[in-house]
Design goal:
The chain is α/β, with parallel strands linked by helices. It has helices spanning about 10-20, 40-50, 95-100, 115, 120-125, 130-140, 145-160, 165-175, 180-200, 205-220, and strands at about 1-5, 30-35, 60-65, 80-85, 105-110.
Amino acid sequence: MKIILLYGAGEVGKRNKVLEIKKQFSTDDVSIIDLDEKNLEDLEMLLCSSGLFASDKRLVVAQNAPEKLDLEKLAGANIDLTLVLTGSALKSGCVLLKSAKGAGAKIYTFEGEKEATAFPFLDNLIERKKQAFIELEKLLKEYSAMYILAMIYYLLRRNLLPLPKSGFLKNKIKTQKQKYNFNDFEKLYRLTLKVEFKIKTGTTEARLGLTNLACAFIEEKF
């Protein structure tokens, strides 16, 4: 079994890494379990079972892995299975981190400070405020266009996914998405993909492409 541990305060980074990994598997071969709601026995059962139409190559994503989880004690799963665990910031001596190293897992740490600097831009963008242009200029001084685009994708996804449990974030997203419908988000997602393609192929300069994309959000030209 291949084990990958993603931990830290960087929720966007972890989410993007999970999406990257999921692209390597068909939809039928991916299972997701939230360890805030399920226990170790449920995880072990999932690791040992296989779906009706699943292939030997499977992916199990275990969200909110607790610090006390001992990966070396997990019951037998086949060698073609990939287990991805996500968790918050971990103490250096915790059981999860120690057992991950002992099990030969690939370990990725995602810091939250970098993401936090993008949230003023995202909030102004989705709320159609011109302050977004000022925040965009700040980001461009420190980060690449691809990072900024990744954050815009995160912004769109968080408005399409079920609302989070957090009261503050839940209320903020609920208020922000009131001006949009599903078709609006679909159009904005397509537009963002087009801008990304133009920047990657050199058809559009990065600053100009991102500025035009911000205009589309703010002026509702989508």
